[in-house]
Amino acid sequence: MRQARTETFDHTITGLLKKRAELFNEAERIRDRLAEIKNDIGAVDRTLSVLGYSGDLDAAMPRQKREVIFGRGELSKAIMGELRHADGPLSSRDIAREIVTMRGEDARDRNYLSDLTKRVSKALRQMKAEGYVRSAVDAKGNLSWERRLTQPPAANSPSSSG
């Protein structure tokens, strides 16, 4: 293998920075186009309504493949890990933001963060019903979450029946 003529990686770094900028710009164009398409769908829906269509528009949509973001139990484990290391109670959005950061994903993607926050909230409600976490309302009326220090009784134990 022939050695490079320079001792530094300046050319490589410059090339990678250029490629990164191109990819970022392409992602922006795709995001803008997606917003345009969603607006167009909304306009078509409104037009159908004005013309008297009263059917279920969602039922007429082709079935989309469900995107699996977390494996079975993975989200709950991530939530418990964040609560375990937290200095105090956290909101669902704070937990979602930490999970995004932990996974090395883009925390600036507001749609993804919003979707993940909803998933975290749902998981927290289930975990609360099972006795693993507890919630409190803060001064602004938002829920904040923390781990319960004592674990819930096992489903088959005598103390949980009756």
Structure characterization notes:
By secondary structure, this protein is mostly helical. Helix content is 52%, strand content 6%. Strand 1 and strand 2 form a beta hairpin. Helix 3 crosses helix 4. The C terminus is likely disordered.
| Number of helices, counting only DSSP H or I runs of 4 residues or more | 4
Structural category is: mainly alpha
The value of Rg in angstroms is 24 Å
Low-confidence stretches: 156-162
The count of strands amounts to 2
Spatial order of the strands in the main sheet?
A: 1-2
First-last Cα distance: 76 Å
Described by the principal axes of the CA atoms, the overall outline is: flat
- Biggest sheet overview: 2 strands, antiparallel
The average pLDDT value, as a whole number, equals 83
Oligomer: single chain
Helix content range:
40-55%
Helix-strand topology string:
HHHHEE
Tell me the β content: 5-15%
Essential attributes:
single chain; 162 residues; mainly alpha; two-stranded antiparallel sheet; 4 helices; 6% strand; disordered C terminus
Set down the secondary structure blueprint.
Elements: H1 10-50, H2 74-85, H3 92-102, H4 110-129, E1 133-137, E2 143-147
Antiparallel strand pairs: 1-2
Helix pairs in contact: 2-3, 3-4
